[in-house]
Amino acid sequence: GGMGKTALASRVLADLEDTWLLEKNQVSGILYLSARSTGISLERIYTDVGRMLGEPAASRLATRWASGEIPLAAKVEYLLETMQDRLYLILLDNLEDHLSPEGTIADEGLRLFVEHCLTQPGGARLIATSREQVQVASAALRNARNIPLREGLPEDEAMSLLRELDPSGELGLRDAPESDLRCAVQLTGGIPRALEIIAGILQADPTTSLSRLLADKSLFGGQIVESLVAASYHRLGENERRVMEAMAVFDCPIEETAIAYLLHPWCPNLDVRACLRHLVNGYFVSVNRNTSEYSLHPIDREYAYGHLSDNEELDKYNRRNLELRAADFYASIRKPESEWKTIEDLAPQLAEFEHRVRAGDYDGANLVLLPIDFDYLLLWGHCALLITLREKLDGRLLTPGAQAANLGNIGIAYQILGQVERAVELFKQALAIVREIGERQSEGIWLGDLGNAYRSLGQVELSLNFFEEALAIAREVGNQSMEGIWLGELGGAYHDLGQLDKAIQFFEQALIVYRTVGNRRREGVELGNLANTYRSSGYVERALQLWKEALLLARQIGDRWAEGEHLGGLGAAHQELGQFELAINFYKEALAVACKFEHRRLEGLHLGRLGMAYYALGETKQAITFYHEALSIARQIGDRRHEGAWLYRLGVVYLACEQNKQSAKFYQEALAIAREASDRLGQSYHLLGYVRVLLKQDELDETQKLCMEARDLSLLKTEYLAKVMTGIVLLYQRDLIEAKEFFADAAFHSRNMLDKTRGLYEPRYALATALVGQAVCDPRWADASQRAELLAPALAEYRRALEITSAPGVVGDAVRDLELIRKAGIEGLEPVFELLEGTLREKNAH
């Protein structure tokens, strides 16, 4: 400490501002961050880089940071990509405050940022100062450069500095004998801060001289700077010491008015300005002339703060009361809530929180957090910060209810960060506390949050129990808003389980509750949930009506985010009806909204849906491009479910392109993810896709087992497809009797879907294929003269399917399923091939 690291780094950057920035225009921006003043964290870097770059980059960065779906590594990558095209310099001062005992950067986000900066070319470059060696990953070492400052200034330069510290000659340094100056330099090791303190002591005590100081051997022991700090502090007058102590309490650059406010109850007549002038002249305090803020060197701050009395008598001048007074100062300068737009606007609350914690006023600190935690810090993506703040209150709040709420709120932040197991532990602790004190409403909240956590872990059946208990308590205590939440969560859980009728019942009940209480935003959410569930149930026309209603509501209340979701839902519904051009228009609108709000999950979803629509239209190259873009986003943000979905879709398109090996690889990866996530619908689709590849490659051993696994998932959406594929597999095994039963079942389930929405193309084509299967399993098929009559129902269904959509991708898939039947040794399918392939030729001709 005191070696001059900060001064050196600041001087270098200031020179760059004067030369490179202005003359050569090589540096586009310089960012100064300090652990002792601004704070250093990935959150802070995100915010300040946004301020440095200006709009629109600032808004994009803020939105990206606020997303709870994006992992820290992906956030770091995006931040560095934003600065990639130009050169930016970032100072991380006093980085030792963020090091673990092993010397690594303790905070994960900050560590990732530093190491990614050191492994990626261009963009941001870092300058860090630290009292301890910073350990980085081996891959980052080749781009790290250390400048160790183990020795002070060279003697001649140190002697020049001592003279410069006394320009008027009043301190006796300017005209001191060279031998005394050299002795002073040697005793202090040439450490710049030690030399400044010598000048400060002479300034504070006119009765001493350099030669007398040098004779006091107690000042120049092993801890030279610390010894000189102590000597200089005790030579100050009481008023100057009070001002230094006040600055030590604030522990950041601070204006004169704040110091005066802090000291007023104990020193009402203190001339703070005169004291500050004296301290600046004596090199105890530095001043920033641009901001009019005064700063203490960290070593001086530690010493002054350590000398504050730690008794806790009310109204006395002591550490606790000074901290509480500082908290009151920050409470007095809060902005009105209407002006809270970024975390910068909450700086007074965050400072007040820290001072109340230092004073031991943990309940007061909790009251500071309550208005800003959910609606601001979590909403803006500052989950890690909120965890840090709330963990400082853990075990220290006076009432059990407050302690339980604190634990639960930490759990919510951990869940948003993806650390769900840790969240479960905290929810259980909160639940145990509120049950012990009989706080029923809170009991319902933590039960419901436990249900949410278990549902996100894939333990959906277990989550149902928690949601049902939470719902019962909400009704018992008459909290309709919470009743609506748990009804909706039950609907979502039953949807996950494939029990769609139950899901619809709960979503409809939630919708009634929200309409009763007048919560229009949540009403729109439940309309969307209902629409999606009706679509999954096969009632696509009903789903269309609900999505239109939800879209209208979103536009009425100005909820652009929800508007994007409902536009995507309308696109999906039109796609199921075979209206692909219309679906594409909706997807593009939805994608534009997702990009505007930097919502990466929805951006990826709509890109993937565009891929599906273009594939159906036979534009495979465009489909592959969209699928890969969607897959890249899913991987960046850790969205495993959609990662599996786009891998599956790539399997489909590569199978259509006759690249069977590549197709099998994508199907296998998709299936592994679906099994890992207990995604029943995903598993069913992926299994059936993989079966098609195995049949094309004549690998029959696994196919029946995989078909049975898909059937056992018993999902309405895919049941008819599973039975069609099982029937085809049985054809390969020459088991015509059982194959016919499966084709009959497939036809039954297809008709069941079509009874709900006649315009669906997928079950219509599946029905036609099932009727082909029934025909070829009929004993009469052996008589070639009867084949035309047996195929007639299938041909009729294919014609109906073609009326819904004759998109090349859809027709191509139907042809490929027929080819699998023909490959099983079935002859006589020429009329069906002629119909479908003729349609394809006609489409290609256009």
Structure description:
The protein has 846 residues and is mainly α. It is built from 42 helices and 6 strands. α12 (238-250) packs across α14 (272-281), α21 packs antiparallel against α22 and α24 (460-477) packs antiparallel against α25 (480-496). The longest helix is centred in the last third of the chain and has 21 residues, at 736-756. The protein is elongated and about 125 Å long. 47% of the residues are buried. The mean pLDDT is 88.
Question: What characteristics describe this protein?
Answer:
3-stranded parallel sheet; mainly alpha; 846 residues; 3-stranded antiparallel sheet; single chain; 42 helices
Write a concise synopsis of the structure shown.
The chain has 846 residues and is mainly alpha-helical. The chain has 42 helices and 6 strands. The strands form 2 sheets. Strands 1-2-3 form a 3-stranded parallel sheet, with helices on both faces. It has a 3-stranded antiparallel sheet with strand order 4-6-5.
